[in-house]
Amino acid sequence: MKGASIEMELKDLGFDFGFYQPYLSGRSELEAARVMSVAKNSYTVLGERTEVMAELSGKLLYGCSSHDEYPTVGDWVEVGYFNDGILAIIHQVLPRKSILKRKMAGGKVEYQLIAANLDTAFIIQSLDRDFNIARLERYLTMVNEADINPVVLFSKSDLVSAQDLTSMIFSIKNIGHEYHMIPFSNNTGAGLDQIKAIIEPKKTYCLLGSSGVGKTTLINNLIGSNQYLTKHVREKDGKGKHATTRRQLVVLEGGGLLIDTPGMRELGSIDADSGLSDTFRHVLSVAENCRFKDCTHTNEPGCAILEALGDGSLDKKHFNHYLKLNQEIQYNKMSYTEKRRKERKFGKMCKQIMKHNKKL
Description:
Shape: globular
Distance between the termini: 53 Å
Helix content: 25-40%
Number of helices: 10
């Protein structure tokens, strides 16, 4: 879409006038636009004009106190156009209906924004070496926390037998995950029509998954041309290379809006209690039958969890992954809260010094 000369109406890009109208500044020189791509500190936006490069205003650039206040792909923003409309300055980010985010890779306890204002997230796992229920549950926790509708796509269905495919899907349903699941193949085209049938005009979708699962190839198949670069998966370990290096929003021919995201090798969570509860609903429903409300599920009499683990009605790996994710979330949440407290204290001190210097 970069450099597109075709004019579009805001509603075709998913703009909800009833929701956003109260938040518009009312300044005649500013217009609403949608962030189409993000690459480090550069942006492209598309409104009722052409898609153009955009920069942050000084007030927005230096006024944000954390990463999640900066624009991300899918955001609605107010911009002013310059240089005969070939450059835009972003003045404010409009409130988000939904925001998909994760803990930044490494030791930093901070959010990294993935995409905003999503209706549905396509979580893709390939049916070869990438198939991993624990990783799928991490994605589901992140998506459920954002209150976004998850749809699970299984790529490379042509590489497994019908019996193995049935067994894989059953292994997910057997631990209580009743999500819409679609196996598909980018090579044979099987299942692509089912995916296309889900995508509605003016609705926004995103693709989530590891590198090499076929996200970019799927976009090319949905577009009908090899518009985006793809890379091969390594034979020795089945790991893919990053074909997508930036987050970008694509307008499909049928009017749907699709965001491609780079593959994520690390998927940490912060403050995702509700997402964890939604993803592991089966575990919590069993725990409700424990004799004691503060049951630790270790050695208490009348523990429904221990009973379910004993008779096999609760999968042990599924429960252990719940415990692991819960512990990780509580630790990250505590660390993030402490980090933000220190940042606010430091910011308050800086303002006091600046105020004092101004008086002098």
